[in-house]
Amino acid sequence: MTAPLDGYVVVDLSTGVAGAYCTKLLADGGADVVKIEPPEGDPLRHWSASGADTAGDGALFAFLSGGKRSVVADPVREADVGLVEKLIAAADAVVWSRGSAVAEHDRFGPAAVRARHPHLVVTSITSFGLDGPWRDRPATEFTLQAWSGGAIGIGRGSQDRAPVHVGGQVGDWLAGAYAAAMTLAFRHRALRDGHGELIDLSMLEAQILGLTYYPVTYHEMLGRPWRTERRPTVPGVAQAADGLVALGCGTAQQWFDLCAMSGHDEWIDETSSLTITEQANLHADDLYAWLRNQNVDDVRDLASAFRIPNSPVGNGANVTGMDHYVARGTFVPNPRGHFVQPGHPYRLSGVTLRPPAPAPTLGEHTEAARALPAAPRQAAPTNESPRDPLPFSGLRVLDMTTFWAGPSCTHALAMLGAEVIHLESTPRPDGTRLIAGIPATVEQWWERSPIFSALNTNKLGITLDFQTEAGRDLLRRLIATCDVIVENFTPRVIDQIGLDFDSVRELRPDVIMLRMPGFGLDGPWRDNPAFAYIIEDASGLSWRTGYPDRNPYEPYSIGDPNAGIHALTAVQLALEHRRRTGEGVLVEAAMVDAALNVAAEQVIEYTAYGALLQRDGNRGPAAAPQNVYKVSGVDEFGREDCWVAIAVATDGQWDSLCEALGRPAWAADPALHDAAGRRGSHDAIDEHLAAWCSSRSGDDVVETLGDAGVPVAKVMQPHRQTEIDQLTHRGFFERVEHPVNPTASHSTLPIRLDDGPASFHRSPAPLLGQHTGELLMGLGLTDDELRVLVEERVIGTAPGPGGRRSTA
Asked: Which SUPFAM superfamilies has this protein been placed in (predicted)?
């Protein structure tokens, strides 16, 4: 059986992790990826985060480029320009980023390629986008985190230290995951009407969606920010008697259970006006003292028994030996044989995904490409009726998800045209309706959550209590009308109500069922509850975040949206398999598998070179100096807590920095003229930059260094994202009206389109059960039957007790 993307040809004109990860995901799905490289090769071939001698191609390159073809082209040779043009003309898609002489040739810019070949889906990956006032502003993944608000995030770190970034260059990986999903989405449309698209992806916008939790919508709807200070998550990553352990409380019940588990029932106060986060912080010292006297395994066993999210704290050295990953075969050997890597970030039943394949040597396929006859794709017909710009129009999706990971996947489907039916029940509304801190005395308090609003526009809302016999019967009838079913319960829940894949397939044989458990459908941790932070702990994302002299900080963000965007790619591969075969597919998109993939560099570096990558505050392997520096001024909370992020990624940027500083004597040391020398003198450089920044405002530092060509950013409070001119220019935020809440700005997708919809948000998030009547009448129910369902509490429009319980 062929892979879903067999025959799909992608020309890769990108450099760096984002483009490489995008095309890796496409290649794993079966696409023929042709990597065009300049004569010196992609710089990623020689990259090692630990600085190891790569002795040729590095291990990360081998992971990201497996199964691709390499064609070398020198853009100063007309014959090579013609070769690249021939390959592009015969392709279905092009992935592009700045960074190579080939990509930056006049003929191969995204707009130029799209103009010559309108059938192509051209995906451009840049820091800020191809257009707008910031399009040429220098940036790195680190400075983009600062602009996004991700360096302060939703309370990460502690107020006694500088804000700290999420380690591991996660923004680049996340941008690559978005690029793959969006490329496939507009491939879906191209299959329908023959027209391509220019997808202009902004890495800044991808970071906003992945590293912050809808802070603008929250601030505008409620008049306050999500967090006002940096605080470590409690309990978060904690020191036990024999090592680190991770515990989390995502709900009030989990906090109450943790109180009981630690022997402190007196902490339980269901009438408290404090949030569970505030209550946890109040008792943090005592809780940590208790944990220091417990062994890790004992804590985890207890937490699992209490249904409290928990995990070991993973890193490059220990994750490959964790029992759950061993049982699931999560890590596989690279074909080159000298290191291991995570397997695919999702699993599809009955669908072939390409197994790990060797990465190409530089130019390995050049001569074969020269010998290929020209075979340009045919352009789409010109005389057509008005076209639908939304790729998923006509696709019906039942969204049985809650909180963040699952809804972020279905939200993208809804913004791109799918009819998404969001299922809740009156006894168990979507969890994001309950986390805004709205008192129950406020009218329709359950409708006022900014997070629910931000995640669920364009969806229809239905309530069904599927713990009742009538509710399950209606749910099954609804399933039979849907193309895709998405759920993110722990596996046991779906099994208990009799909606496993085999049962669902009896209702609709060609159904795509996307399951998004935290840890997968099998293995020792199968039934463990998982929120974003626990996934980050278990995968190594937390390990790289924070300071070396403190426990890791949980990013508390990326675990969920990263899972959502990987699941979107997985469901599209399943849809393509169905298009080709007519078969339904079970998609298992475990949150932790997606996280392990974007944290892959840790395992790769350790097993290839014996290097355990560590957290290092705000320093990182991609730039030196790289750090945040305090500037003068008082923030909106009355604190002297204003910062800028500076990252010097090249020797040329170092020279520009020296020029902007007035070429001070300390910077004239010849040892600082290369990255190794600067890294060795990082402490001294930090002292000088800190002194220079301290007497200047953030705006002054950004203007002085940015104009000189140095990557620099203000460390933004996340709810201030609308103040960034570039986002305004691109229309990243759209104003959404709501029947209960004030009109507020809502983030969209991290892309602009040549031929896309006028707006992404077409209707507000649904009220609880808003469309239940019309959806059930679509199944043939009468008004009288609906009244009975209301009376029996099977359906409803306000939180409350459900109907009479029954066994499945």
From this structure: CoA-transferase family III (CaiB/BaiF) (SSF89796)
Residue 766, φ and ψ in degrees, nearest 5: -75, 150
**Residue that the structure tokens 């006032």 belong to:** 133
User: What is 616-716's CATH number, 1.25.40.80, 3.30.365.10, 3.40.50.960, 3.30.1540.10?
Assistant: 3.30.1540.10
CA distances from 443 to 438, 741, 799 (A): 10, 11, 12
Tokens 């009538």 belong to which residue? 470
Strand 396-400 relative to strand 484-487: parallel, antiparallel, unpaired?
parallel
- Asked if 142 contacts 618 with a C-beta cutoff of 8 angstroms, the reply is yes
Half-sphere exposure of 723 (CA within 13 A, CB side): 12
Burial 48-63 (b: 16+ CB within 10 A, else e): bbbeeebeebbbbbbb
| β-strands 396-400, 419-424 pairing | parallel
Structure tokens at 632: 């003068």
User: Cα separation of 84 and 503, whole Å?
Assistant: 50
Look-up: residue for tokens 């849809």?
A: 575
DSSP string, 677-719: HHHHTHHHHHHHHHHHHHTSBHHHHHHHHHHHT--EEE---GG
* DSSP state at residue 360: P
Dist. CA 291–CA 632, nearest whole Å:
40
How long a stretch of residues is the chain?
808
Sign of torsion over alpha carbons 500, 505, 507, 508? positive
pLDDT in tens, 123-160: 999 999 999 999 999 999 999 999 999 876 556 788 89
Which residues are within 8 A (CB) of 368 and not within 5 positions of it... i.e. 6 or more apart?
A: none
CATH of domain 9-213: 3.40.50.10540
Residues 713 and 9: their CA atoms lie apart, in Å, by: 38
Extended beta strands in 28-159, E state: 32-37, 69-72, 93-96, 121-126
Mean pLDDT by 10 residues, the chain (808 residues): 95 98 98 98 96 90 98 97 97 97 96 96 98 97 95 73 95 98 97 95 98 96 89 89 92 90 91 81 92 95 92 97 98 93 97 96 97 85 74 98 96 98 96 87 96 98 95 96 94 87 96 97 92 93 96 93 98 98 98 98 97 96 97 95 97 98 96 96 98 98 97 96 98 97 98 95 98 97 97 96 66
Alpha-carbon span 20 to 99, nearest angstrom:
13
